[in-house]
Amino acid sequence: SCYRETYRPQFHYSPEKNWMNDPNGLVYFEGEYHLFYQHTPHDTRPDFGNMHWGHAVSKDLVHWTELPPAIPPGEDGAIFSGSAVVDKNNTSGFFDEEGSGLVAIYTNEGNKAQPGKPQVQSIAYSKDKGRTWTKYEGNPVLFPTDTLDFRDPKVIWHDESSMWIMVLAVRDHVEFYTSPNLKEWSFASDFGSDIPHIHRGIFECPDVIRIQVDDDPNTTKWILMLSIGDRNGVNPDDPEPPAGGSGMMYFIGNFDGKSFTPDETLESIDTIKWVDYGSDFYAAVTWNGISNEDGRKIWIGWMNNWRYATTLPSKEWRGKTSIPRELQLRTYPEGLRLIQTPINELSQLRKPILSLQDLTIKPGMNVLSDISAAKAEIIAEFEIGTAVEFGFKVRKSANQETIIGYNISNEELFVDRTKSSATDFHSDFTAKHKAPIKPEHGRVQLSIYVDWSSVEVFGNHGKTIISDMIFPDLESKGLELYAIGGELRLVSLQINDLVSIWG
Ligand code: FRU
After folding, report:
1. Same domain, 387 and 487
2. Which of 51, 111, 119, 152 to mutate to test the pocket of ligand 1 (most atoms within 8 A of CB)?
3. Are residues 373 and 267 in the same domain?
4. Does residue 394's CB lie within 6 angstroms of at least one atom of ligand 1?
5. What digits encode the pLDDT tens for the residues 348-394?
6. Taking every annotated instance into account, which residue ranges of this chain make up the domain Glycosyl hydrolase family 32 N-terminal (predicted)?
7. What's the whole-model pTM score?
8. Atom in ligand 1 nearest the alpha carbon of residue 306
9. Complete DSSP assignment for 154-209
10. Is the CB of 175 under 6 A from ligand 1?
11. Does the complex come out with an ipTM higher than 0.90?
């Protein structure tokens, strides 16, 4: 494939063919970043009874090489989401004298021949840099006690206790388990069962990380990140994520090797910290195995929403990832907040198109009327003036546009994709997504990533994010910078093309 089909992401990963959902087994090992993912290799729709771990590798998190599916289903059922670790000290005993290797920890879902079979956790190991995997003969390594929703193990190494920690999604809560060897797991604690009515469905794909506060190596906190699925809703009347359907929340707190204690108790939906206010960022998890010298926390999400995921208008494949994002924890007047910024490696794709500084933007003018782009990086800073709304229109033509705007009186960033797309493939897709964000020192900063079928908007240096898919015609390439109801100052603007990663 030349990766130039209609809607094909140009700087996001998507499989050459067929279905993908969650990223799985993210691990850095011997110079390669691994991206495994939920994949049905023979169908553009998800076949849950036949789910594989698809596989791609990258040296820079930007350019990816797709490899054959890594872990296929078998007698044990389909291979659902999970994680991978570098077993440095050979705690598993899988690697003998040969040294260290990779261990994958995943969920087996009962297949069609065995309906109602509970989900169990299994492991597999690889001695050849993730190319081939051997399922452990002692599988499964963890059984549920009383629920069918028991899945998506994320495993990390916990230094202080010299133990492996697993965080697992268990319907309306998560559970922590510990293990010395990845084969025997002991229950340690649960989190979330005592929080009433915070979501309408089930937790999926949890992750827990230790992270520096304000980049200070001596002060660290833990963040628990949770995806919320609205299938099999346990409380259909309860609130849902801001853009509806699949969404992600996070908690900041401490983890002692056994249990997670949040800094703040969650009293209502209004105090939930949302990872993304767009419709299309789900099941994100962080890379294991990034060295201490690098020290970055990086994650990637499935850029999609189960509400309409199976109906997307792309033909050859279905599903893609977000751009990889670096995570930080920063102190604000209102408290600590998770910051997400595109990884620095993306800057290698830049080809400058336009740069402007210190300009007054007035209603009726469009300083971008001479340029066009079907994909772009737009980095802008504005000083609030008398305008009541301002922003960019991207992927614009006579009858299509995606608006990325800021409403000053509501202090709201938004992406309006109601007129974005060629096809109206699902009623939940046509929407405007809003995120609360206040000007800082009278300014609003935006970093926007426009690809052939998506926009990701990072507000105020990664504090507030909106990620949305769009499906415009390739010919819809117009750009506009607009102001409504008054003027404002454009402090700076840089627009770059991002060269396709597919060469
Ligand atoms: C989340 C999810 C996971 C599950 C996988 C199945 O999107 O539902 O909970 O492991 O997808 O493909």
Report:
1. yes
2. 152
3. no
4. no
5. 999 999 999 999 999 999 999 999 999 999 999 999 999 999 999 99
6. 12-342
7. 0.97
8. 7
9. EEEEETTTTEEEEEEEETTEEEEEEESSSSS-EEEEEESTTSTTS-SSEEEEEEEE
10. no
11. yes
